[in-house]
Amino acid sequence: MKNQELALVIGNAIEQEQFDTALEQLTPLRPIDIADILAEIAPSLAWRLLDRLPNRATVFSYLDADVQELLARAFPRANLARVVGEMPSDERTDLYKHLDQAQKDALLPALAQAKREDIRKLAAYQEGTAGALMSSDYATLEPNMNVSTALATLRVEAPDAETIYHAYVIDSERKLLGVVSLRALILAAPHTLMHNLMISAPVHCKVDDNQEDVAKTVARYDLIALPITDEHGALVGIVTHDDAMDVASDEATDDFHKSGGVTSIVGKLKDASIGVLYRKRVFWLVLLVFGNLFSGAGIAHFEDIIAANLVLVFFLPLLVDSGGNAGSQSATLMVRALATGDVVMRDWFRLLGKETLVALCLGATMAVAVSAIGYMRGDEVVALVLAMSMMSVVMIGCVVGMSLPFVLNKLGFDPASASAPLITSVCDASGVIIYLFIASRFLALG
Amino acid sequence: MKNQELALVIGNAIEQEQFDTALEQLTPLRPIDIADILAEIAPSLAWRLLDRLPNRATVFSYLDADVQELLARAFPRANLARVVGEMPSDERTDLYKHLDQAQKDALLPALAQAKREDIRKLAAYQEGTAGALMSSDYATLEPNMNVSTALATLRVEAPDAETIYHAYVIDSERKLLGVVSLRALILAAPHTLMHNLMISAPVHCKVDDNQEDVAKTVARYDLIALPITDEHGALVGIVTHDDAMDVASDEATDDFHKSGGVTSIVGKLKDASIGVLYRKRVFWLVLLVFGNLFSGAGIAHFEDIIAANLVLVFFLPLLVDSGGNAGSQSATLMVRALATGDVVMRDWFRLLGKETLVALCLGATMAVAVSAIGYMRGDEVVALVLAMSMMSVVMIGCVVGMSLPFVLNKLGFDPASASAPLITSVCDASGVIIYLFIASRFLALG
C-alpha cells in the first residue's frame, strides 16, 4: 500500500514537472525499492524521472522484464541508449533479448561499438547456460603486476566492474591463471607480484555448463563471483553470488512446480494469465484420464467379484490413493536430493534397498490400520485381502516413486518430472489390478 | 570414487606417520574438497592430519555435524580447543550446540575467555532466527575515522573478520550508523571521513527475525553480508551471502518435503536411517486411512446405486484422483509463490477469482475427455453424470488446493503443510460423495 501511495505522489510531481521533489523522495531508497515504486507509475511519466536518477542504470536493471520493455518504448532513443549503455552487461543482454526486432534495430546503432559487440556476443549463448548468465564486467590483472600497480588498476576498473573483490589474473591470450582477492591485496606488501599472491587454477565453470551447476559451484565454494572460461581456457565472464542465488531459487521453483504436475511457469504467478495457467496444467490432468483406461480395464475384468462383494468398493479410493501418496513421498525425497546433489546416480541401488525396507514398515503399518477398518465393515477375509493389498500397493508406490526420478535422469529428462500426478497415474492402475486380483483369490463370486 | 581412493592413500600415509606426503596431496585443494576427503578417513587418523593443516579451522567448519562430533571425540582436548578457537564464530557455535554435555564441559574451560562468552551469547539465540545464524566476526569503523585510518583498521581486523568487503560504522554504544564498502574505501580520497563515505541507515535485520526473512533480504538487496541488530539498534552480528544461500536452499528443501507429505528431514537423505524415514512419512499416510472413513461412508450411503450401475466403479479412481491432482497443482503454485514472496496474503481474493476461471477451463476439458470414455463404456446418461461430476470435483480440488496454503498461513502454520496427501484426502471424500450424489439423481436403481 505504501508503495502505491508514494507512486501516486511521485507520479503527480512528474506530471507537474517537479522533478526535484520526486527525486528527493526516491534518492534515500535502495535501487530495488525505487524500481518497485517506478513500476507502479505510467511508463510515459516514469521514464522521465528514471532518466534523472544518478543510479538510473542500476534501478532500471532491477525492474521486471515486462516493465523494462514498456519503459524502453516510452524512452526517446538517445536517452534509452545512454541508460542501456550504463547497465551491467548481463542485465543489458537480458533486456536486449526481450525487445522486439524494431526496438533492437533502433537501439543497437545508438550504442557504442564495444557495447554492441558485447551484446551480440553474450546474446549468442544458449539460455540456461553459464554463458547466458554471465557478465563481461570483471576486473583483470597481469601475473607480473605488483600490489601497488594492481590496486591502481582496480581503481580504474572499479566503475565498470561488477565486483573488484575478486580480480582475475590472465595471460596475454586471456587464459585464466588465477584469482586475487582484494582482501589479499590490501594485506600484502606493495611489491608482491600477482603470480605469487594469486590462488592458481581457481574454481571455474565453462560457458556451456548448465546454470544449475554454476549455482551449485558458487554455493559449494562460497564464492563472491565464479569465473567462466571458453573451450580454450580463456576468461570470458563471471557469475556473481547474487545471480547464482537467483538461479538456485528459480531452479527450486521449477522443480517444485514440476513435482506438483505443473510444467514450469516463467515469471510471477500473480501476473500469469489464465491461458498460461491452463496450458501449464492441463497436460498432466488429461494424461491421467487416459491413464485411467488401464485401471478401468482392470475393474471391468473383475466386475463379477465386485458385484458379489460390494464392500470392496468402499476401500477402492483408499488403496488407489495410498500407493500414489507413498510414491509421491519417495519421489519428493529423491527429486530434491538429486537437485541438491545429496544423492547421485550411483547411489540408486543402495537407496533402493533402504527404500524397500522403509516401504515394508510403512506398508505394514497401513495394513494394520486398513484391516482394522475392513474387519469392522466386512469380515476377517476382507481384512486379510485389504492387508495384503495395502502392503503390495505401498511397496509398488515406493519403488516406482523412488526409481522414476533416477530413470528419468538417466534418459536425459529432468528428474522433477516424476510428478505426483504421474506417479498417481501409475499407481492407480497397478493398485486396482493388485487389489482385485487378491480379492478374486480369497472372496467368493457370491 | 576418486575421493575414496585418495582417502585410502592418505589414511595409509597417516598411519605410517608420513604427514608431509599426506599434506602435499591435500594443500592444493579447496577447504571443502579437503573436508570431503577427511570425512572418508577414520577419525582417529583424520584428526592428526587435520591438526597439521594450515587452514584446519576452515576445513573443520566444512565437515558435516556428525563427522565434526566424531572428530571432536578423537582430538586431544588442547588441540581441539585450538582448532575450535580458530573457527568462525557461527560455525563454532553450531559445533558447540551439537556436542554432548561432557564434551561441552571439557571444551569450554580450554577456550579463551572471550570465545567462551561469545559461544554462550550466540548459543542462546533460538534456532531458526537471525541470531542463531549470524557470526560475530565482523569489522567495525568509527564515524570520524578517515580513509587511511579505516584501511589500517581493516588490515588489523582482517584475519578475524568473515568479510572486510563491508565494514560497519558504529557509535560508542555500538549503534549501527552505516555501512562502508571496501570498494568505496579504496576509491575515496585518504582524508574522507567515514560519516561522509558511509551509506546511512543500511538494510539490516533484527536478532529475532526469522532466518527465512534474513535469506530473502540478502537475496533482494544482493548483499555480501547483512548486519543484524538487537532491540536497541546495536550491531551484534552479520549474516554472510553464503550462509543466506544455504538457508534459502534448506528452506526450499523443507517446503518441497512438506508438499510431498514428508515432515522435514534434517541432514542428508543418503545418511538418514530407516527409522527416521519411517517416522517422517507414516503420519500423513495413516491419517489418510482414517480420512477414508468419510469416503467409505459416502460409498455405503449410495451402495444401492452402485450395485445397480456397476459402470460407476470404473470411473471412481479417476474422479477421486482428478480432484486431488488439480488441487495439488494449485497448492504447489501457491505454496512456492508464498515462499518466494511473489504472492502475499492480501492477494488471496484476486487469485481465488483467477483460480476459479482456470479451474472452469480445466474442469471442462477433463469433462469432455471423461464423458467421451464414459459414452463408450456406458451411455449418454453416464457420460452426462461423469461430465458434471468431473467439473465439480476439479473445481473443488482447485479451490481447496489454492485456499488451504492461505488458511494454514493465517492460522500460523507453514503453508507448505498443504501437502499432496492432505489435499488428496480432502478431495477423496468430497469427490466420492459428489459423484455418487449426481449419479443417484440421474441413474435408476435398477
TrEMBL record, chains A, B:
It comes from the Bacteria. The keyword Transmembrane applies. The keyword Transmembrane helix applies. The chain crosses the membrane at residues 282-300, 306-326, 356-375, 381-408, 420-444. Keywords: CBS domain, Cell membrane, Magnesium, Membrane, Metal-binding, Transmembrane, Transmembrane helix, Transport. InterPro entries: CBS_dom, CBS_dom_sf, Mg_transptr_MgtE_intracell_dom, MgtE_N_sf, MgtE_transporter, SLC41_membr_dom, SLC41_membr_dom_sf. Residues 134-197, 198-256 form the CBS domain. Its main location: membrane. PROSITE patterns: CBS. It is found in: Cell membrane; Membrane. It is a multi-pass membrane protein. It holds the Pfam family MgtE. CDD domains: CBS_pair_Mg_transporter. Gene3D superfamilies: CBS-domain (3.10.580.10), MgtE N-terminal domain-like (1.25.60.10), SLC41 divalent cation transporters, integral membrane domain (1.10.357.20). SMART domains: CBS, MgtE_N. Belongs to the SLC41A transporter family. NCBIfam families: mgtE. Acts as a magnesium transporter. Homodimer. This is Magnesium transporter MgtE.
